[in-house]
Write a structure and sequence with these properties.
heterodimer; A: mainly alpha; two-stranded antiparallel sheet; 2% strand; globular; B: 9 helices
Chain lengths: 201, 190
């Protein structure tokens, strides 16, 4: 792999290798919590924190852990940070914690976190692992907030809890089917833009 | 009667994939053809039932007596990872046929969030041991049902003439949306 600059390392997680839209990892929380923009943002920030911290610790201890037990060790490190997030959110943002519920402990099994640990942090320096985690975390947060905003806008005609039209939206977008269909169309639009850039006619 | 309600609600009304959004990764990843989808479903039924019993016992006989319930996430994921390994080794020895059928899916299950999700839900809902087992069976059957239906739809989708940007994941997600809408029709059942 050719060495890439810090800026590139950070930016790749946001658009080119966006964990949700391009690599399609971590779809459970993506679909599960994005019934509003605030929920998406909260989940994204919580995941980003776990990503950065676990990337940092794993890149520091990568030479100490024997190769054979590396995956279980990574999972324990990740689970420890998830517990930290869980306790912090229960203490400081109880309402959001209630909303996100089950999906906070499930950050442990979010494929993005383990994926970056295995693919990046286990073979790079601490600083570039932090940058990678930050980029991926911002990309994930961006994706979740976007999806949450679209669903909230269509479903209840409001954004970040601020209601500008006093009418009912299309309830289906808040419910389960709306999550699948919104994400499907976002990915289709991204594919369409990518194709158009590649072959202009 | 309560048990029937738990089962029906877990399979149809609060389907773990289509209503609760757990296990989307295998739902999209292993659903290209029906036989692998059913194989994955079988492995999930098997592991989820055992894992729920194990985590239930760990919660009530280790974590709560020692007053360390905040260690739930770390403990559960270790128990599940350990269990999957044990199941793999035991199956290889005891029933090579079953191992042949489920073998490739077992390692994938550790990171399947349905297992950890159901283990935590059981504790949150304050189920007793029997209710937990029934809840686990119901949810894993619900997962299998959803992934089996979805994979047969996707087999048909491969033959459809779609624009290039819709092929693959976008079309699959929109199909899943319609399937999820269909499952909403069960909402008044219980």
């Amino acid at each position: 792999m050719a060495p890439i600059s810090r800026k590139e390392n950070f930016l790749k997680g946001i658009i080119k290798e966006n964990p949700v839209f391009v690599i399609l990892l971590g779809l459970c929380p993506t679909l599960g919590v994005t019934s509003s923009a605030v929920n998406g943002l909260g989940m994204g920030v919580a995941t980003a924190f776990v990503l950065v911290m676990s990337n940092l610790v794993i890149s520091l201890v990568k030479n100490v852990i024997p190769d054979k037990v590396r995956i279980p060790s990574f999972i324990v490190i990740i689970a420890a940070f998830v517990t930290v997030v869980q306790l912090l959110m229960a203490a400081y943002t109880p309402a959001l914690n209630e909303q996100l519920g089950l999906f906070i402990p499930l950050i442990v099994v979010n494929c993005i976190v383990l994926g970056r640990a295995e693919a990046f942090a286990s073979r790079n320096t601490a600083l570039s692992s932090i940058i990678d985690g930050l980029g991926m975390g911002v990309g994930f947060t961006f994706a979740l907030t976007l999806l949450g905003a679209i669903r909230e806008l269509l479903g209840s005609l409001s954004l970040f809890g601020y209601k500008f039209i006093d009418a009912d939206g299309m309830l289906v977008f808040i419910l389960a089917p709306g999550a699948f269909i919104s994400l499907g169309f976002i990915i289709a639009i991204m594919n369409w833009m990518k194709n158009r850039k590649r072959s202009p006619h | 009667m309560d048990y029937i309600i738990i089962i029906v609600s877990a399979i149809f009304i609060n389907n773990i994939v289509l209503a609760k959004f757990l296990g989307i990764c295998p739902f999209l990843g292993v659903s290209k053809n029906t036989s692998t989808a059913v194989g994955m479903g079988g492995a999930v039924i098997f592991v989820m039932t055992i894992a729920t019993i194990m985590t239930y016992l760990v919660q009530h006989y280790i974590l709560i007596p020692l007053d360390i319930a905040y260690m739930q996430t770390v403990t559960y994921i270790l128990v599940i990872a350990f269990l999957v390994q044990v199941v793999e080794i035991v199956l290889k020895k005891v029933s090579p046929d079953l191992y042949q059928a489920l073998g490739v899916y077992l390692p994938l299950i550790t990171t399947n969030c349905t297992i950890l999700g159901v283990a935590i839900l059981v504790i949150q809902n304050n189920f007793n041991l029997l209710e937990s087992v029934i809840f686990a069976i119901g949810n894993s059957v619900g997962f299998t049902l959803a992934i089996a239906i979805f994979s047969s739809l996707r087999e048909q989708l491969d033959l459809a003439d779609l624009p290039e940007y819709m092929q693959g994941i976008p079309a699959a997600l929109i199909t899943a949306s319609i399937l999820s809408m269909a499952f909403m029709g069960f909402a008044g059942l219980v």
